[in-house]
Amino acid sequence: MDGEHPLSVGEVLFENPAPWGHSEVQAFFEDVMAAEMGTEFAYYPRVSVAGRLSAGTIRTGDIMALESWENRIEVLEVGGADLAPVLRTRVEAQGERVADERRYEMAVPDYVASHPEEFDFGGGRGIREGTLLRDAAISRLRSGDLG
Prior knowledge:
The protein is of the alpha+beta class. The protein has one domain (12-142): Alpha-Beta Complex (5'-nucleotidase,  domain 2). The protein is 32% helix and 23% strand. It contains five helices and six strands, in the order βαββαβαβαβα. The protein has helices at residues 22-37, 60-66, 85-93, 110-114, 133-142, and strands at 12-16, 41-42, 56-59, 72-79, 103-109, 125-132. The chain has a four-stranded mixed beta sheet. The chain has a two-stranded antiparallel sheet with strand order 1-3. The two termini are 30 Å apart.
């Protein structure tokens, strides 16, 4: 198999002008989760990123392989004071000040929500569940919105 032209299946979603590495995939999934669930921010662990997207034609099969965990999006309510430092820094880098006394809604994969001891995000209480992340990502790409 040619690494520069990987085998891909499914509906064509878009032409990717440049490869997406782990950071770009993580940011895309977080953007999709926050938009899908209407939350202030999202957390997708970098260790959960299963691969990258090559440049060129991207199909539904590429997204299914990229989010092969079949995670649902879950919304947690987390206190500002409980938010992990790495997330606090990311939120504040977007121009938001994290208020310790405030409650925030954060979208995460359901696996992360059910295994908080494995991830450093600050925990939280589950308040609602949404669709599969890969379905939301495919829908987003179908709309032409690359985030």
